[in-house]
Amino acid sequence: MDLSVADRVMGESLFTLLKFAVLPIAKVLVMCALGLLLASSSVNILPAPSRRQLSKLVFSLFLPCLIFTQLGKAVTVEKILEWWFIPVNVILASTFGCCLGYLVAFLVKPPPEFFNFTVIMIGIGNIGNIPLVIIGAICREKGNPFEHPDTCNTNGVAYISFGQWVGAVIVYTYVYSMLAPPVRPKELDGSNSTNGVMTGKAESASESTERNVAATSSEETSISVPLLVLDDVPPPRPQGWELVKAWLSHGRIRDIMQPPVVASFLALLFGCVPLLRSLIFTEHSFLYFLFDSLNILGGATVPCIMLVLGGNLVGGAGASKLGLRTTVAIVATRLLVTPIIGIATVLSAEKLGFLPVGNKVFKFVLLLQHTMPSSILAGAVTNLRGHAEKEASAILFYEHILAVLSMAGWLVLYINVLF
């Protein structure tokens, strides 16, 4: 009798474990399948131009609204001091991942123009979109292993948002420079040869123009004297607001200050200042209607992201020039090896006392930051730089297909062993 009860309890616990590990991935698959259906040629409600516009809408409106409402409501000055390890974990995940990417690239030897691309696709993970879906899917269940559904989802989204601004800075600085198109030697040789041909022509043309200028100048000096002599006066230096605008327009400051990053900073400001917090985030306050409106808009973030991601899979992997060995190495390393490094990092931080005691959602989000496929923003940077776009599409395609199995396995490990 005791054995049957023990077997029944073990069966129920195994079912509960599989439910919390597999159901989030199943929800992701259902939403992606609907996006794939809407983007198919038979339905064609969500073609490529519509997906691009929907992605811009999510990036510019829905995601900032979600970050502002969830992060601003949960954050305080005390919690910022308590959550300091979240951005540090993002930096560590990118650093260890890129070191691993260099090692894999040296061993696999991808085509030379894709060496940096291999490092980036292994080292930089998706710390925003997919973790939001995973947290939302797990926290909606009443018997989830973390907290009450409301506080679980609010805190989880706040933790993820608190790390997103660091990820955006990494993507638009380090990743942007790493994914620069390679300089082709043939183009350099061709340019040098053409420069050599043009030099002779330019010299002869310059000699003739100099003679003409000398003749005309001698005629002009005999007739009149120039009224104004121009000196090499340097332009005045910008001051005040002009200096600020010049600094903001320089480099990639605008690229770094994307709407989700700005929303994170505003959420930190409004959440940490008691007066602003009481005006917006307190129920029945004067501006609470603004919070409620933004919260409704933010609720559309996750469904739209999944529809776009599913719709992007309609074209398949594309024509990649990476080769099978490099593709397998990137996908396997990103999905199977980097989570092991993440487990070691998070457990070491916990033993050193860097993590809040007893906060399971906090620890789970840190682990998710090491478990996700390659960053979708890194794929967007390839389009921006005009280099390795097809290769990035292929890697993201294979990773998101295989991540269904890998993430289910890692979630089973996290929930069963670590919690």
From TrEMBL:
Region named Disordered: 188-217
A GO term from the CC aspect: membrane
Keywords: Auxin signaling pathway, Membrane, Transmembrane, Transmembrane helix
Membrane-spanning parts: 20-45, 57-77, 83-107, 114-138, 158-176, 261-280, 286-310, 322-349, 396-417
Subcellular locations according to the entry: Membrane
The keyword Transcription regulation appears for this protein: no
InterPro entries xrefs: Mem_transp_PIN-like, PILS2/6
Gene Ontology process terms (BP): auxin-activated signaling pathway; endoplasmic reticulum to cytosol auxin transport
Membrane topology type: Multi-pass membrane protein
Transmembrane helix keyword on record: yes
PANTHER family in alphabetical order: AUXIN EFFLUX CARRIER FAMILY PROTEIN, PROTEIN PIN-LIKES 2
Protein known as: Uncharacterized protein
